[in-house]
Automatic annotation (TrEMBL):
Record keywords, A-Z: Hydrolase, Multifunctional enzyme, NADP, One-carbon metabolism, Oxidoreductase, Photorespiration
Catalytic activity: (6R)-5,10-methylene-5,6,7,8-tetrahydrofolate + NADP(+) = (6R)-5,10-methenyltetrahydrofolate + NADPH; (6R)-5,10-methenyltetrahydrofolate + H2O = (6R)-10-formyltetrahydrofolate + H(+)
Naturally occurring in which organism (per UniProt): Iris pallida
Protein name: Bifunctional protein FolD 4, chloroplastic
BP term (GO), one: photorespiration
Quaternary structure, from the entry: Homodimer.
Amino acid sequence: MKSYYVKYFFHSPKYPSQPRKPFPFLPPSHVNPNPNSLNQDQQEERKKKNKETIFFSSLKLCKGSIMASSLLLDLSSSSYSTTSRLLLPFHGNKTLTLNRRLFSKAVPCGRRSPAFSPVTMAMAADTSAKIIDGKLIAKQIREEVAGEVARMKNEIGIVPGLAVILVGSRKDSQTYVRNKKKACEAAGIISYEVDLPEDSTEEEMLKHISDFNTDPSVHGILVQLPLPRHMNEENILNSISIEKDVDGFHPLNIGRLAMQGRDPLFIPCTPKGCMELLHRYGVEIKGKRAVVIGRSNIVGMPAALLLQRENATISMIHSYTRNPEEITRQADIVISAVGVANLVRGSWLKPGAVVIDVGINPVDDAEDPRGYRLVGDVCYEEACKVASAVTPVPGGVGPMTIAMLLSNTLSSAKRIHRVEW
């Protein structure tokens, strides 16, 4: 009885193309040892089924070397760095060659990535991601804060106060401080502002912090980062009273956040905003796999700790992580805060994942009057085709940061004055 053989091998610059030991397959025709007894149409149908059986049986041999999804890849493109090929000898000398892209070149967001396989596309074809509206949620939080501030003022005569210290004349920092001041005024919170010149000494900064630490009308202190190079950021942040550390950067606050059974007085505003978005959109966290891209003290690390406190299983992606795409593809929840425009493509995401994009990155755009536009770490157009929910940039996490700052300031005032409601 005649046997059919399938050979497969892996191409790479490191390993030469050497066929592995062939595996025999028996065609289904052995069920009927006398195919000539069939009429012509039946014989043609039998030959067709024989080929299909051999073709799909060969896929079982490819575990660990070739994914079944490679069968559907676009063979017309050559933009890949490593290729594995599956050679399937059939009757005669006909051979089918299949390509699998293991790595892809970066392409502008909005175009299909070479690694964005049609398998993933097919799974996401009917998916329309829910847009997580940070502006809407932030507005709701600011209104809630304003209501409680008014109640405090009416019942106990106390108005929460927030002090902001700015050093230098960075345009972006000035914009952030201006926005925080407007938000405070809208919520009824008193705003105290100190503007110091670029060449101010560290001692001057520490003196202002000390004054605010002892001022009973100030319930929160915020030092606008980054600071000039000649100032020691660690010393300055550590000098803020932990009871007024509304940014949540004090090492004791972070330490309590990391420890089981301990509660920090304050949670850093941006990670807290990310979690608030998940909660208000009803995203289940307990028992889910979560990936945090970026490990900064301001966002990445606190976000991972917060997810862990809610019993998610956490992985962190950083600059030394190997195979970040594969790790991210396992996540039910993805929080990206690395500051690289369009780093996370649709092919990185698990179908149905929830994506929180913290990044705010300018990219050139000749059509925009400013000459640039803001994008996130995640390719928004591709993510919408795969994820179940995603935050836009702008309008996602950004508005939440200031809303959480107001919330922390209110909490500080209630704690200091022992307000229980």
